[in-house]
Amino acid sequence: MIKILIVDDEQVERDGLQTILEKHFSNIVIQQAKNGRIALEIAEEYKPDLVFMDIQMPGMTGLEVIKNMQSDNPRIKFILVTAFAQFDYAKEAMQLGVVNYLVKPSRVKEIVESVETILSQISEEQRVVEANKQQENTLQKAMSLFETDVVTQLLFDHVHEVHLAELMELLDIQATDEKFVISLIVPKGFETYYSAVKEKVNQTGSAWIGALYGRQLPIIVFRKKEQSFRTQAILLARDILTLAKKDGDIGWFIGIGNVYNSLGQIRQSYQESLIATRDTTTPGKFRFYADLQAITPNIDEQKMKENEELYFERIRNGEWEKIHQEISFIIDRLEQEGMILEQVKQRVMELFWMASRVLSEMGVESDVPLYSYQSTDFRQLRSETRHLLERMRKSYEEHYAELEADTIQQIKQYIIDHAHSDISLDMIGREVGLSPIYISRIFKEQLGINYIDFLTDCRIERAKKLMRDPAKSLKEITFEVGYHDPNYFSKVFKKICNVSPKEYRKKLFS
Fold first, then answer.
1. pLDDT tops 60 at residue 289
2. pTM for the predicted model, two decimal places
3. Which domains, and CATH codes, for the chain?
4. Residue closest to 392 by CA, chosen among 331, 330, 324, 346
């Protein structure tokens, strides 16, 4: 419905105009005001689309009222109503964007024709606004999917630099050199809270939230210069944990990794954040990796971090024999150094705990019990370690037993068929029944390229075909191939093809 406001100090003028409008137009609602002050009060809540404004009224003039209304809503259309055919307000009225004026008394035909023209303009503007709103909503949805994919790629693979730079711009995130990761451990049924957590994280304007992997949710946080690292991390952790109050905090915990300067090191911060969640009984419900006490004294921490990173990769790759050899080597070394059995058992148990976290993020549910070892000597410790690793290996292999030889082809075909729409690793994972992280890894291993790069190639190849049709504009092609921003499409196209879309098309036609 189009909202109309009639402003005139004469009742008979207002009623007469309303009668004419209601007789000739069905899709309108009308309110009246007898002076400028009342008109402003009504307009604030009513938000009219079209205002008939008398010029000469007691108190405020019509032009003064128009200025005030436009400051709140510049889209309002105005028709001035005057008793004189020649008036001195024409120039100022034009500057205010008044679309027409009527001379009292006006003929019905003039009123109807003026309103028909303006209502047509209003309807078209509303259609454009609605279309833009839908496009913005679609873009936000696409960016949300893209954000989770980029987090996955950064933590488990790598991401195309053009996507990363453009994502920073589109999400309006003030990136800094320093960044860290927090891992949120959540209870089962957390899916209902995901949107709320995402909203809280996005409100900070300085973080990217990943997809939910098992019971853990990774978040990449960019350091704020005005706050210390610990202050920023604690405030964000506490803000997220306010959502856990409804569950009595059961099952919620946050681990916080160290700060690093490069994206290449962000995986180390992620692994540290996971290790920081090894004991979820801490009253504060969050812990910094830097606050963890060393399990084994006098150990080279840098060497330990390197070994942990390699250990994470071994688990993701399913290299169980190598994992067994490395844990056995650790047991042998610690025994030779004279460490007591209980300390060695604690260190080995931590490695199993880390393995269970990595398997969980891949969607593998391991039934290995995470309690203290029952062994009473080093021989039994080695035997029990072998037994527990075998159970983990079995869970891993059973999870991917249904992985057929053509699964990668299924994934490729799904991407090719849906490249024009908003797809993500999560969506593909649901389609083929695999973890997004696992898909990312096997895609890179078997095809030698990143999933996002393959998706980009599909879209660019389709764009090249569409460019052969001179009837299609570059903007239309942008949307048809799955992008929501022509400028972004142009950057990606130039990155891949070394020429801009316009230059490519020009060469194509010539």
1. yes
2. 0.53
3. 2-106 (3.40.50.2300), 173-291 (3.30.70.2730), 301-399 (no CATH)
4. 324
